[in-house]
Amino acid sequence: MVFWGGRRGYTFAGMRRKGILAVIGGLFCEAFGSVVSGTAIVDTTLIGEQELAEIVVVGYGRQRRRELTGSISSISRESLGQYSVSLEGVLSGTVPGVSVSQESGQPGSGASIRIRGGNSVHANNDPLYVVDGFIFYNDKSSTQTGLGGFESNLNPLAAINPSDIESIDVLKDVSATAIYGSRGANGVILITTKRGSHEGARVHYRYHVGVQHIAHRLSLLNAAEWGSLQNEIGIHSFPEPELLGVGTDWQNAVLRRGLVQSHELSFFGGRESHQFHVSGGHVGQEGIVMGSSFQRSHGRLNLEEKIKDLALLVTLTGVKSTQGALTTFTPEAYNSSPYSYGISSPLAYALYIPPVIPIYNEDGSYNYHNPYEHGYLSLGGRSVNPLSDLESSVAETIHSQVLMGVQAKYPLSDALTAKVSLGTHIAHTTQNFFAPSSSALGLETQGKGGIGNKRHEDLQTEYSLEYTTALGHAHRLNILGGYTFEQTSTSYAISYASHFTNEELKHHNLSDGATSYPPLSGLTRSTLHSVLGRVNYTFRNRYHLTATFRGDNSSRFAVNHRWGFFPSVGLSWNVYECLKLRVTGGSVGNQEIGDYEAVQSYSAGHYNGQTLYYRNNRGNDRLGWESTEQYNVGVDAFLFSGVFIVTGDVYYKRTRDLLLEIPVSPLEGGGIQLENVGKVTNKGIEVVVKYSPTTNVILSAHLSRNVNRLWNLGANNNLLQGRNQEQILREGEALGSFYGLVYQGTVQSGEDVSTLPKTVYGTPQVGDLKFADLGGPEGKPDGVIDEHDRTVLGNKQAEYTGGVSGTWRQGRFRLYLQVQGMAGVSVYNQLRRFLELPRESYNGSSALLGSATPVGRSRPYSFLDSRYVEDASFVRLRNLSLTYSQPLGRGYSDAAVDFTVTAQNLFTFTRYQGYDPELSSGTDLGTYPTSRVLSFTLALSL
Fold this sequence. Notes:
The chain is mainly β. The two termini are 40 Å apart.
């Protein structure tokens, strides 16, 4: 018997002749009805059965999607199939409620990933990553040895090859994340890697090659324009500046086209009792800035064995990543530092060098003479050449990781299963640094070099029992209980030397340095004991309950405050087969701080040949858990025969007992102390719409809004942060709020200056800047511009995030498109602030043409002002790819060769005036630019 089912037909075999089918709906649901046989009525649901029956990875197990009570988003297969060097590239713009902002365009660098906003001020806000059931250690400091002197942001997640990933599930609300207790406050990302198959041995090979170049250049003055500006501000005299011509384009000189290539090879197959998946590959990427690069070699083995009733899973991953980065200054506050002028790296310095200075001498050697450099980067008449600096300096990070896990499952009975998991993650980082005497960092010390090493070891053990039973036809019960233990240890050692007589061997010959610094070394350890339990109950396949409890004991907190308890409950109701309602509530915790923040500690120092100890941490015997309460209401709907799938969530998160660094009174020894102070709230809404009118067209769009606020700081309200106090922690404002003066234009000729508030120079004059008089010592405008007139100018957290993706198939062609966007986010464009200040030594922005004011009066305050807190909203065409697939007909339906042409970051629509608006730190001081990539991929499956 075949009856109507929207786009499909459904056949029931073996029905008795007296069966009666009554279709009682179909407007929104695909079809649903009842089969009546005698006096028994059996519901027959036919809507969206594929989606509802989908198995989703959850914490410590799997679950049918129709039974979920929590908010879980899964990355589509179309998105997973796109080539990406990093995991962040897969996540960016694809998941509602997940904000992904790049830390830098530097190859191998990481990204800031926030799930439903940031919860914490000083504790880690990154989500927890779980790979094949094992927690992945993603502390970004693990790739930094403390060596200093260069921009180290190598991403630990680079160990995960996106091509090895079978599925990614993002757990967002407390019902989904509470099973991880102290680790789930920032959300959880579950990654399942590819396994073997029952179909015999298969092979897959993929080659990728691409060319990347800068997506946007800054508009700077050329030589003639710079000469005219100097005449205008009266510093240097150029009688005929137009004769200077274009001069040297230093920005263009340090940028280049970079080649990226990768080879990936995998074998997989097996039989019922034995399955395997082996993969390996290499990625090589040249950065678009000279001297930068990224290399990764990786291998993975997944082995599944079934020995009678015992099921074993063995996973082994080995990765070696090497990043060539840029040397960089540290943000010192004193005036003698180049950083105080905005020079953070050779890239930034290249933007500053006057275009009248040539790169090379007549004989082709590098030019080290710059008469306009007034001393910060000049010594004895010898100046720094950024191009030479990038070529000769060493800023290398080598990160090796080994991840190994063993899982064993054994059924003790038909209903009871025991599981034991053992895993380890060993990471070793070596950082090599050398700045020759011709470089910015080595100029004063006649060369400077160092080597840093860090080793991290993470041991995880899990023991669990799972009980599953059906109580009649109406009830289904699943109970999970377990114990986990995790131990981490980190050790490091650093050596430095300077004043080299022979620079040929660079950092490989530190003994040549005439000046050696005391070596630094250290060791930290931490433990986490956890008990967990979860109950899943289903009634009549329509009503679902998930109750979770976890208790964690962390050695990172004070002795009497180490236990944290985190319960949650979730309910869902399948109102119809096309409509599901969800509601959840509970709490999770955060322990991601340093290992010894709760205890008083000392560090060794040297003075006059003596070893002295000074206190570097005051300790806090009341330091305890930072916890987050979460509440979520959601709806899932399958509309118009499943053509539309709509998911909506409204959530509220409240994080209390913030782990906050509080200034300590000088009478008590000064410094800072970590305390449990304040609250942060995040509330928002997420909507996802999927549209699939045919199997050849899949469109998806999502939009999220999150409002972040800080509360209950008490006496610690209005804490200023940043080198120039450009950020503030204030009740009622968002984390990452920028704080400064409101710019109101420039004093014009004929303007009545007597009505204007006074500045540090007194009454403003023509050409001076004007600022809003917002307050005074008494809280009211007082006619004077000072620190009391500062206000919140914006914040670095996006209020809106969204994306659109789509796949169109026509014959053997497949077109994929992805658009990403953010709104309601600000970036402090510190680089622009420096480039728009006319100076006698450095180049500037083309915005200075015709707008110069006297140097001594052009910036009366060091305070940030609203001109440079820019709207960083953007819409980006992130990915556009076209694939042609040619079947090979070798006995497998999917044996084929695929040819793909891809454009990444093709267009970005934004009003932001820097290199790129997508910046996790919120402050742009010559951040490594984002690249546009055009690439070709060949994939062969046999």
